[in-house]
Design brief:
The complex is a heterodimer.
Chain A: H1 2-12, H2 17-41, H3 43-71, H4 75-108, H5 115-133, H6 135-159, H7 164-173, H8 176-194, H9 196-199
Chain B: H1 9-17, E1 23-24, H2 25-35, H3 44-57, E2 60-64, E3 75-79, H4 81-109
Antiparallel strand pairs in B: 1-3, 2-3
The chains are: A mainly alpha, B mainly alpha.
């Protein structure tokens, strides 16, 4: 019991200082009461309690650190940082998803004419990661490389005997996610300039 | 429609647990588990994260408990006027949804 409480007290130190100072003692007291109660109900209840605490801990830590950061800044800057965070997560997920899909298709139906497009898909994955740090340049690169990807896919479609109209549709639709995130990063880059003084 | 609505299930149950009387942390955890029929078991981190947001929003307030039976820190939380208003609004919203659903189901069975 004492070991578990000491361990929990140690884990509480991982929370941001402000949160820990405000709720740390109470959390320890509540955890102690929960442990005592669970022990009386048996080994299963006790194990469930520990698993639940450990399972939720990483999410709670991330949430409290993000919250602590947003508390210390003006609301509009906090809003910008939230938007940037979502843009980063979704752009990376989207880039990983399309890279995986295109690679899978390329491996299954190997066509040498699609090689430039495949290279560009990987270049675009790097551009997405670059846009995390340099929103404006990364966003611009995403849009330019996205356009090149469209051309490469259009060319590959034509070379594989597709109708020209179909190839144009391919050239215009395949780069859409990259253009979308490129535009979002460009907008974020412009906003970042406005908040440059606050963000440091 | 209030911009704060709908509430998440956990937030709704936490607020609801304080509807009758002020509650301390462990009692809130037990009430939430009881009201959700054992579906929702809050961990201490999740509970205090939620309580911290509710305090910031001014929906609940923290009381220093007068009882000294336990040497441990035991603070109680109670609903504020705003918190009760939000809780009532959520209950009305859920009631409207439930009525609409029951009406549709009844019409479907006819």
């Amino acid at each position: 019991m004492i070991f578990i409480l000491r361990l929990y007290a140690g884990l509480l130190r991982l929370y941001p200082r402000q949160f820990r100072d405000a709720y740390g003692d109470e959390m320890l007291a509540v955890f102690a009461a929960a442990v005592e109660d669970a022990r009386q109900r048996g080994c299963g209840a006790f194990s469930l309690l520990i698993v639940r605490e450990l399972r939720d801990l990483p999410f709670n830590l991330v949430r409290e650190y993000l919250h602590a950061r947003t508390l210390a800044m003006p609301p509009e800057v906090a809003k910008f940082r939230r938007a940037r965070w979502w843009a980063r997560v979704f752009s990376l997920l989207s880039a990983l998803f399309f890279t995986w899909i295109y690679t899978l298709l390329f491996v299954r139906q190997f066509a040498p004419q699609a090689m430039p497009a495949m290279i560009l898909v990987y270049v675009l994955l790097f551009c997405t990661i670059f846009a995390w740090v340099q929103e404006r340049h990364g966003g611009l690169l995403l849009m330019v490389c996205g356009a090149l990807l469209g051309l490469a896919f259009g060319y590959a479609s034509l070379a594989s005997g597709m109708q020209p109209l179909h190839a144009v549709v391919v050239a215009l639709t395949y780069p859409l996610p990259y253009w979308l995130f490129g535009a979002i990063f460009l907008m974020l880059g412009r906003q970042k300039k406005t908040f440059a003084l606050v963000l440091g | 429609m209030q911009p704060e609505l709908p509430l998440t299930e956990a937030t709704f149950l936490i607020l609801l647990s304080m509807a009758q009387a002020p509650m301390h942390g462990y009692a809130i955890m037990q009430e939430v588990a009881l009201m959700s029929d054992g579906r929702i078991h809050l961990s201490t981190g999740t509970l205090y994260g939620a309580l911290s947001r509710l305090l910031e929003q001014g929906w609940i307030e923290r009381l220093n408990s007068a009882e000294t039976t336990s040497p441990r820190v035991r603070k109680e939380y109670q609903l504020t006027h705003d918190g009760r208003r939000i809780l009532n609004a959520e209950v009305v919203r859920l009631q409207t949804l439930l009525q609409a659903a029951l009406l549709r189901l009844a019409k479907g069975e006819q």
